[in-house]
Amino acid sequence: MIFKGQRKLKNKMNFQGHCPICDCTINLPEGTEESEIITCPECHNRLVVSKIEKENVILEEAPKIEEDWGE
Ligand SMILES: [Zn+2]
Questions:
Q1: How many angstroms is it from 3 CA to the middle of ligand 1?
Q2: Relative to the CA of 57, which of 24, 37, 45, 67 has its CA 20 to 30 Å away?
Q3: CA distance 47 to 12
Q4: Could you tell me if 32 and 49 are in contact, meaning their C-beta atoms sit under 8 angstroms apart?
Q5: Do 19 and 6 touch, CB atoms closer than 8 A?
Q6: In a domain, 52, yes or no
Q7: Rounded to two decimals, what is the model's pTM?
Q8: Residue 66 domain flag
Q9: Does residue 56 belong to any structural domain of this protein?
Q10: Residue 39 C-alpha to ligand 1 middle, in angstroms?
């Protein structure tokens, strides 16, 4: 990765994204990578990291994983 000419932030790099379902702000840990699956702390939906632009993370609703449906 090349970070040529980019100004450094004083704060520790803190990725932040918005849940596309409930629109809450989600803080993501340093080292979050694209295509990583996370769970929204508000609506508990699965989200996939679609894109990372600097500290701004684009989140999308993750495709549903087949699970054993009890109903
Ligand atoms: Zn949410």
A1: 31
A2: 67
A3: 24
A4: yes
A5: no
A6: yes
A7: 0.70
A8: no
A9: yes
A10: 8
CA of 49 to the centre of ligand 1 (A): 13
24 is written with which tokens? 């809450």
- Would 45 be classed as within a structural domain? yes
Q: For 10-61, how does the pLDDT look when each residue is reduced to its tens digit (9 = 90+)?
A: 556 679 999 999 999 999 988 899 999 999 999 999 999 999 998 899 999 9
Range of the domain at 37: 27-61
How many structural domains compose the chain?
1
Ligand 1 centroid to Cα of residue 71, in Å, is 24
Confidence label for 70 from pLDDT (cuts 50, 70 and 90): confident
| Ligand 1 centroid, distance to 6 Cα (angstroms) | 31
Amino acid occupying residue 11: N
